[in-house]
Structure formats: C-alpha cells, structure tokens
Write a structure and sequence with these properties.
The radius of gyration is 17 Å and the shape is globular. The protein has helices spanning about 10-35, 45-55, 85-90, 110-125, 180-185, 200-210, and strands spanning about 5-10, 35-40, 65-70, 70-75, 135-140, 165, 175-180, 190-195, 225-230. The chain has a six-stranded parallel sheet with strand order 1-9-8-5-2-3, with helices on one face. A three-stranded antiparallel sheet has the order 4-7-6. The chain contains six helices and nine strands; from the N terminus they run βαβαββααβββαβαβ. About 30% of the residues lie in helices and about 20% in strands. It is α/β, with parallel strands linked by helices and about 250 residues long. The chain has one domain: Rossmann fold (3-Layer(aba) Sandwich), CATH 3.40.50. Pathway: Carbohydrate degradation; pentose phosphate pathway; D-ribulose 5-phosphate from D-glucose 6-phosphate (oxidative stage): step 2/3.
C-alpha cells in the first residue's frame, strides 16, 4: 500500500505539465518492460487538464497505449455525457492511439450487462487470471469525495467480487454507469488523482487531516499514490505535502 504524496501547484496549467512529465516516464518504463502501457482515465475536468500538454508530446509511443475508463456513463459514445467523448475531443483526436486499443462501453446493453461486457474487454488485455494491474489509473474527485462512480454511502463501496460494477442510481446524472471497483483500482502500480478548486478543500482536509472515510480516501496503489492539486484545493489542509513539481 502506497503512502500518498501530494504535489501542490499554483494553477491547473502547472498540473498539466506535471502530469505530462509523469506519464512520459511511466509510459516509457512500461513499454520497455511489457511493450504496452495500460491506463484508465476518469471524466469530469480531468481529460482537459490531462491533455493540455500531453496532446503535443511527440516523445511518447502512443501506439502502445491501451486505454480504459475508470468509470463511464452508459450512454452512446458520442453523447455529451460520455467520458469517452470528452477524452476523444481533448486527447485521442490529437495522438495516435489505435482506436481498437481504446476500450469503450457498449451503450446498447443494460447497465449490468455493460459491466459484464467491459470485464471481458479487461480480460482480453490483462488475462482472466488474477486482478488487472494497470500501469496508471488517473482519477478525479468530486466535492462529496467520490471517485470513479463510487459514491459516499453507496453499496458499491463494498464490492470485492467483480472487476467492474454497475449502478442505476448515481447521485449525479446520468444514473446508469459502470465503474472499476476497489480491487482493480487499488491494484494499479500508480494511481494519480487530480483535484482543483477551493470546492475540494473541505473534503481534502477531512480525508488527509481528520482521516474521515470518503471513497477517494479508500484508494491506494501498489507503488505510487499521487495527488496533483492546486493551491485553492489545499486551503486549510495541514497534511505534509511536497510542493515542488515533478
């Protein structure tokens, strides 16, 4: 279980630069080791911050990337609520990741069947034995402390028998979603959170200083657990941080 390291930046632009630096290194290491780089990403503001510098990075071999979504809304992939659409517009349209190596939800299925089908896609890349171990999972955090589609007080927080779970009662619309579960998220070699804005400060204080239980605070990693936050999000947080950039 990795101890969290927090990198504080003055702006989201600085976070984008740090993510670009981190991913350049992790991608090269993973491709050298296994000839592929496996990554899962979330939606919200994350794709835009992630892509700002990364989309023009010509040193990365994007053809070796295999991209999943840490959670996804069960909507058509061209729908405005689709995390894939957000990532496509900000990043995928600018880098040469083969489309067949970007793994999307099947929106014609019910939410529970969509979760089962997404599990099969994971098995094609990671194999059926053991729990998938992503090289990197990139996560956001809501003001309520949720991450992926794992919400405070929801039964999915306790799921350990599935790689991908589904819900049809998301507190945030749209209600039908699929999400990676903690066994998969916490088995990643590196997990990197991105949290920006003063609206995140209270929950970060509760997670790091008061040790209160929130979905984001339950996330660990095999090797590296990193938080990239801006100064407004760290307002009032006393947890020991590293304020330099990667």
């Amino acid at each position: 279980m990795a101890t969290p390291t927090i990198y504080v930046s003055p702006t989201s632009a600085h976070i984008s630069a740090s993510l670009n630096h981190l991913i350049t290194r992790l991608s090269a290491t993973s491709i050298s080791r296994s000839n592929k780089f496996t990554v899962a990403i979330s939606g919200g503001s994350l794709p835009k911050i992630l892509a700002a510098d990364l989309k023009s990075n010509t040193t990365i071999d994007f053809t070796k990337w295999h991209v999943f979504f840490a959670d996804e809304r069960v909507v058509p992939i061209d729908h405005d609520d689709s995390n894939f659409k957000a990532a496509k517009e900000t990043l995928f349209a600018h880098v040469p990741i083969p489309r067949e190596q970007i793994y999307t939800v099947e929106p014609s299925l019910s939410h529970d069947k969509a979760a089962e089908e997404y599990t099969q896609q994971l098995k094609k890349v990671f194999g059926a034995d053991g729990i998938p171990q992503f090289d990197l999972i990139l996560l956001g955090m809501g003001p309520d402390g949720h991450t992926c589609s794992l919400f405070p007080g929801h039964p999915l927080l306790e799921v350990e028998d599935r790689w991908v779970a589904s819900l049809d009662d998301s507190p945030k619309p749209p209600p039908q979603r699929i999400t990676l579960t903690y066994p998969v998220v916490n088995n990643a070699e590196t997990v990197a959170f991105v949290a920006t804005g003063e609206g995140k400060a209270e929950v970060l204080h509760k997670i790091f200083d008061l040790k209160e239980d929130f979905p984001s605070g339950r996330v660990t990693a095999k090797k590296n657990l990193l938080w990239f936050v801006d100064e407004p999000a760290m307002k009032g947080v006393q947890f020991q941080t590293k304020s330099y950039q990667l």
